Every structure is written in structure tokens, then in C-alpha cells.
Amino acid sequence: MPRTYVRNFQVRHYECDAYGHLNHAGYVRYMQESAFDASADAGWDMARYEAMGFYWLVRDTEIEYRRPLCYQDRVQVKTWVADFRRVRSQRVYEFRRDGQDEVVARAETDWAFMQREGDRPAAIPDEMKADFFPEGLPEVGPPRPRFPGPPQPPGSAFRLGRRVEWRDLDPAGHVNNCVYLAYVEDGGLQWLRSRGWGMARLVAEGLGIVARQHRIEYRQPALLDDELDLYTWASDPGTTSIVRYTFIARRSDGALLARARTHQVWIDLQSGAPRPMPEALRQAMA
How far apart are CA 276 and CA 265, in angstroms? Predict the structure, then answer.
């Protein structure tokens, strides 16, 4: 059995969106902090990694939002390492309200172990594996499904340009993995606005849109002052939901930095229940 760790949080007002929910990027911030603390609890804190010349880099995250968390909710994040491969490791997270058994969100993150000199992947030490799996490593790790989605955005994709700002960076000097989700959210809102369905109109219609699942793959880091092009488009519209894809590329050379698949649900703002998409909105997205 792997070593497990539980980290407690309380949702702050500034972490909530206009619906009063913990913003979806906030969950990923909790995951990141929980992973750091879980690693320190196993004897592998930031200082030890720094002294050895290594660090962890997120390569892939998938998160499912089952029920919203709101202001002042006390949250427990339970986390554990699911496996170790040569240079990568998958970590699992479960979110629960304090004192309740129901899992309100669940996520997996694929981390790459990196050597700071040269920023290249490095073999994970056997000592570390033993500290996270004191009873022995699993014989077979969980599957890692490939990123689902088309290889390139269609010509009709909405494009949004942006520049990497100082506030987007983490201590490694890269755009933090949580910030990409903010980019993805903003791209979706601007795309709807370009189709005549900005948030003001949605609210007037009593209609909301929330994420049920994100899958995001990080390919290359974005750095300060990089000019980015964000392409987003919808696929598989259902009665109450859509799937939206987002590609984030560096403008100077066209390199794909990240791509995301987002499953979103239309909801009634009063009840919070799923609500059919208005026909006028469906036609606007066509």
C-alpha cells in the first residue's frame, strides 16, 4: 500500500468565482500544495530536492468536479502516489468536505522527475520509491490513457492572444500549471462572447456553465513575455453539455505548449441543476 497524506484547507472568499464556487484552478492549487506537503512528510521536502539538484514538473492533469465547494467550506485532500516509472510518477487526489465521506472531486497528476542542470528527465531514486511505498511497489501501475482529442484545431477555432505576465509565473520561472486552467477558462468565456453569448447574457437567461472535467497536457513551459495564441473550439454538443478543446501555442515559433479537453455542463443558476442548452445558443456555436 502507498503512503497516504491528508491536507486540510478552508475555501477563501478570493478563491471563489462569480457563482460562489471554488474556481476550478483553485482545486489544482490545493493539489499542488498537498503534493508538496505529502512529499515532505515522506522525507522529501523542497530543501532536499534543491540540495540534490532535482525537481518535479507536472506533465498531465485530469480532474473531475462532482460537487461544488463554496466559501468557508473546510476541505480535506487525501493524496497518494499510485506508481513510479523510470522518470515519471502518478499521484492521486480525493477531495472531501471535512467530516463527510462523499468525494466531491477526484484527480490524477502525472509528474516528471527532472534534473535541474540541463532541465532534463532523471531516473527516480530507489530510496525515494521505498519511502513512498514502504510495503513495496505495486506490480502493475494504473493505465495512462493518451490525451483524447484531434491533432490540430480546425480552421473555425476561436483565437485569443495573450502575453505571459509576471503574476503568471511560479518560482521555477515558468507559467504555473494552475494558471493554464485560468487561460483555458478565459478562452472559453471569450469564445462564447464572440458568438453573442457573453456572461451578462447568460446570467440574464438564468443560465450558467461549469466545468465537470478537465484534462490538460503540458508540453513545454511558457516564460515571461512569451506571446501566446490560444485556440478553442467546441465538439460533441449534447443536450446539457459540450466538450471544448483548447490548444495553447507560442506565437514566435508555433510550438504547442499545452492542450486541454474540458467537459462543461449548462446549469440553471437558481437550482444548480443541469439545463438544456437554448436552441439559439446551439446555433450560435455551430
Answer: 9
Q: What is the DSSP string of 258-275?
A: EEEEEEEEEEETTT--B-
Name residues whose C-beta falls within 8 Å of residue 257's C-beta, 6 or more positions apart in sequence. 218, 219, 220, 221, 222, 228, 248, 249, 250
Domains of the chain and any CATH numbers = 1-145 (3.10.129.10), 151-286 (3.10.129.10)
pLDDT exceeds 90 at position 156: no
Q: Is this model's pTM higher than 0.70 or not?
A: yes
CA distance linking residue 36 with residue 121, whole number of Å: 19
For the chain, the maximum distance between any two Cα atoms, rounded to a whole number of angstroms, is: 59
Going through 71-220 in order, the beta strands assigned E by DSSP cover 74-84, 88-97, 103-115, 120-121, 158-163, 207-218
| pLDDT tens profile 253-283 | 999 999 999 999 999 999 999 999 999 988 8
Integer Cα distance of 224 and 190 in angstroms: 23
From CA 151, how far away is CA 129, in angstroms rounded?
35
Inform me whether the pLDDT recorded for 223 exceeds 70: yes
Q: Is the distance from CB of 247 to CB of 235 less than 8 angstroms?
A: no
